[in-house]
Amino acid sequence: VSVVVLTGLLMSEEEEQKPQPIRVDVMFELMSNQIVDVVCDAPEFRACFDVPHAECSRKLRRMLADCRADMDDELPELIRSDEADPIIERAYACVIPKWDSLIKNRRTETEECLRAEREAAGEEDT
């Protein structure tokens, strides 16, 4: 009887631990969506960079997935902190340099781009 109880307790502990990877998956999916919304859907970005939306979305999501894979060893420790901030900070710190290198030579100096930048800076368009 005690073996059955002990096995039941171990199984319930394992079940309690299972949601952690799911939460991390959800967190990374939300980060992917947020990054795509902020970057790929930004009018200034669309006006100033020659990167089609589908490519932008696909590459940003791939970069974040690669960064997550790089963080796999650290994730169990980061999860235990009960805060998402360290995971988010490390993910963004990983993605930003990769993204910057991708778009480095794809900037356009069109009038539409310059106008979007002026509007983003709060200047009036004349």
Mean pLDDT: 79
Q: What oligomerization state is this entry in?
A: single chain
How many separate structural domains? Answer: 1
Largest sheet, strands/sense/barrel: none
Low-confidence stretches: 1-5
Strand content: under 5%
Structural class: mainly alpha
Radius of gyration: 21 Å
Order of helices and strands: HHHHHHH
How many E-type strands? 0
Secondary structure tally, helices: 7
**Helix content class:** over 70%
Tell me, briefly, the overall form.
elongated
End-to-end Cα distance: 83 Å
Describe this entry's structure for a reader.
The protein is mostly helical and 126 residues long. It has one domain. It contains 7 helices and no strands. Helix 2 (19-40) packs antiparallel against helix 4 (53-71) and helix 4 (53-71) crosses helix 6 (85-103). Mean pLDDT is 79; it is low at 1-5.
